[in-house]
Amino acid sequence: MTKIALVTGGSRGLGRNTALHIARRGGDVVITYHSRSDAADAVVAEIAALGHKAIALRLDTSDVGSFAGFTDRLREGLQTTWKRDSFDHLVNNAGHGDCAPIAETTEAQFDALVNVHFKGVFFLTQALLPLITDGGRIVNLSSGLTRVSAPGWGAYAAVKGAVEVLTLYMAKELGARGIAVNTVAPGAVETDFFGGAVRDTPDFNAFFAGITALGRVGLPDDIGPMIASLLSEDNRWVNAQRIEVSGGQGI
Ligand SMILES: NC(=O)c1ccc[n+]([C@@H]2O[C@H](COP(=O)([O-])OP(=O)(O)OC[C@H]3O[C@@H](n4cnc5c(N)ncnc54)[C@H](OP(=O)(O)O)[C@@H]3O)[C@@H](O)[C@H]2O)c1
Fold first, then answer.
1. Which atom from ligand 1 is nearest to the alpha carbon of 145?
2. Span 203-207, mean pLDDT?
3. What tens digit of pLDDT does each residue of 58-104 get?
């Protein structure tokens, strides 16, 4: 049976690229978007052109109160499109970047990062557990910034660090259902993240390229295929790992 993956934040950047590469490897995809329904529709059309099924659902991963309603809409979508009550792979990818020295970080900035990157991942996964098939997979997106420090990214990196710990505990608790859970930690990648800073700000790009063994920053195509591969049968025994995909950033 064709596997179905749910990729949060699949409308742009790494989530979009991951969704497309899952389809290229033969999977179907549910993507979520927050505000850019146009971008989400374009991804669904691209996946259809690859001969696979996809649907797009709106989701704000910072809004835990909306997760029950989202789960209902997901059930409807799975039933209508696939005649299924479950899906196989969850990629917790959605998120935004924010940068401020610890001395200047506001409570609102801090809360937004916690809500999207940690609390949202925790409770969305909890809400979706009954819909994930036994033997399924979960991938949580972290960041290279949990291993090397960069001034200004303290709050962001700390919540990503929390997700890495959460991954370990998810893997332990969900192992009984045969569900493998891993963290993928990209280095700096050229996407819309943080206003497109890595892609559009030459100094920022050069800084990260300069601390990367392979001599450049990442592109979405450096990340999506890796996540799609991690979800494949080839990698079924990889569990509870933090896998950095950064070209050797900060080594
Ligand atoms: N790019 C990097 O350098 C980098 C490095 C390491 C880790 N990461 C991590 O990789 C993940 C994806 O980043 P990206 O570079 O692909 O960013 P991006 O290009 O800015 O895309 C972000 C995606 O997340 C969605 N999103 C943002 N806030 C959301 C919210 N509150 N609720 C639901 N969806 C939301 C967006 O939806 P809309 O399109 O509807 O706005 C979009 O699909 C993030 O977790 C990020 O922390 C990125």
1. 6
2. 95
3. 999 999 999 999 999 999 999 999 999 999 999 999 999 999 999 99
Give the separation between CA 147 and CA 153, rounded to whole angstroms.
Answer: 12
Q: What pLDDT is stored for residue 70 in this prediction?
A: 98
Q: Are 28 and 2 in contact (CB under 8 A)?
A: yes
Q: For domain 4-245, give the fold.
A: Rossmann fold (3.40.50)
12 Cβ inside 6 Å of ligand 1: yes
Give residue 115's pLDDT: 98
Cβ 58 vs Cβ 34: under 8 Å: yes
Mutate which of 119, 124, 191 to test ligand 1's pocket (most atoms within 8 Å of Cβ)?
191
User: Does the beta carbon of 174 sit less than 6 angstroms from any atom of ligand 1?
Assistant: no
Assign residue 28 a region (left: φ > 0; alpha: ψ between -120 and 50; beta: otherwise): beta
Domain boundaries, the chain: 4-245
Ligand 1 pocket, 11 CB below 6 A?
yes
Select from 93, 74, 98 the least CA-distant residue to 4: 74
